[in-house]
Amino acid sequence: AENMYFFSDLALTLNEPEERVAPTDSRLRPDQRLMESGRWDEANVEKQRLEEKQRAVRRRREAEAVEALEEGKDYEGYIPLWFERKVDAMTGELICVYKGGYWEAKDKQDWSMCPDIF
């Protein structure tokens, strides 16, 4: 434990790679995998690449929203695959609720609906 920053066994295994998961699973982040292999310089370069890719997607979505507004059209923006936003009946807070589909996609190994985030 002292060599692993006194993390519990559970904490140490939470980020272990797992087969047959969605290509968007955070355990597949290439920068994270490089970091865990001790390849710090490569991990930092990869992290910068991923962050710039995310910024570019955000800029594109913002431009699409502005264009839709200028044309008087509705713009839905990003819609999560596995969750939907709902108002909690008890608290009135906005929450994310699983809407299904992940386990079926995992069983079929059909990840065609997943965006390329890495």
TrEMBL record:
Give the GO cellular component terms, alphabetically.
cytosol; perinuclear endoplasmic reticulum; plasma membrane
Q: Pfam families from the entry?
A: Oxysterol_BP
Q: Which GO terms describe its molecular function?
A: cholesterol binding
Which SUPFAM superfamilies does the record associate with it? Oxysterol-binding protein-like (SSF144000)
Q: Which InterPro entries match?
A: OSBP_sf, Oxysterol-bd
Record-given protein name: Oxysterol-binding protein 2
- Please tell me the species this chain comes from: Nipponia nippon
